[in-house]
Amino acid sequence: MGKMKDLVEVFSRILESERTSHAYILEGSSPAQRIQEAERLSMLLLCMARHTDTSAPCGECISCKKVLARVHPDLILIEPVKDLIRIDQIKDLVSGLKYPPLEGQVRCIIIQEAQKMNSDAANTLLKTLEEPPSNNIFFLTVGSIDQLLPTIVSRCQRLSVGVERISPYAVEAPTELSRFELYVNEVTVNGIEDNESSKIIEKRNRIFEILSLYYERGKEAAAISNAFQLSKDSAQERQDFFELLLCLKVLARDLLLIKTVGNDAELDNLLINNEYKDFLIELSGKFHESDLCQYSFQLSELENMARRGINLEYAGNFAILFWFGEHGKDRTS
Ligand SMILES: [Zn+2]
C-alpha cells in the first residue's frame, strides 16, 4: 500500500504543477500492480472531494465508490482480448471521446498492457494522442517503454510503478556491463526471468557482424549466408528463437528512436545498442520509419505464432531477411 500512495502523491504533485499531460505511461512492476495504480490515479482525477485533499482520493464519495465498483461511466478500460488490442476497440473508444464526460470534469481512459495493440490500433491511438479531445486523460500501462512505439512514448509522460530498479538508461551505467547487457538482464524472454545474457549478447553481436558485412564491407553473399546460419542456429530451441527476436526488436527500436529523436546528444542515453551508435545512425538512413514500425509488429506476431508452433527456422528467415534487399538498399530518404 505504501508504494501505491507514493505514485498517487507523485501524480497529485504533477497535477498541481504546470507539467500536466493528457497521457501518461505507467511502466514497471507487474501487470496487476500497473492496472491497480492506473485505477488509483483515475480515482484521484474523478474524486469529487479531491479539491479539499489533493494528495489522495477520498475513497468515500459516490465517484470514488463507482471507481472501486468499476461502474464509473467516465472511467474506460481497454483490455487485451485474446492477448491483443484490436483497432475496433480503439475506434470505438475514439468515437466516444468527442462527447463530454458524463458525470464530472474529466474522463479517464486506461489502456491495459498497451504493447498488445496491433499496428492499426497503435496508429489510431497515436492520432488521438497527437490531437486529444479535451477533458480526456489517458493511462497506458506497460512493462517497459521499449515495448511501445517511440512515437507514442513521445506523446506521454512517464510514471514508474513499484520499486525503482537500475535503469538501463542511467547515464552512470557501470562500465563493465554494456547497456544491452543491462537491458537483457531486466527483460523477461519467454517468461524466463533469468536470461542467459551471454547467449543473447552473442546473437546480438552476430546480427551486427552480418549487417556490417552487408552495409559496410560490401560482402553481401557472406552476410546473407551468415544470416541464414544464425536463423538456423536460433531454431534449435524456442528460447533461442525468442532471443533472436528480442535482439531484432531492440535493433528496430533503436533505429526508430534515431528517426524520432534525430542525431541528438540525448541519443547517447537512449540507445540500447549504444556502442554501435555511429553504425546505427548510418543504418537508420536506409530504412523508412513506417517499415520499421510495421516490422516491430511483425516480430511480435512471429513471437505469438512461435508459441503456437510454427516452423522456427522459416520464421527466423522471415525476420532476418527484412534487413536485406529491397528494404535496405538505396532508401536514403
Ligand atoms: Zn472521492
Automatic annotation (TrEMBL):
Listed InterPro entries: DNA_Rep/Repair_Clamp_Loader, P-loop_NTPase
Entry-linked Pfam families: DNA_pol3_delta2
Gene3D superfamilies (alphabetical): P-loop containing nucleotide triphosphate hydrolases
GO terms under biological process: DNA-templated DNA replication
Protein's name in the database: DNA polymerase III delta prime subunit
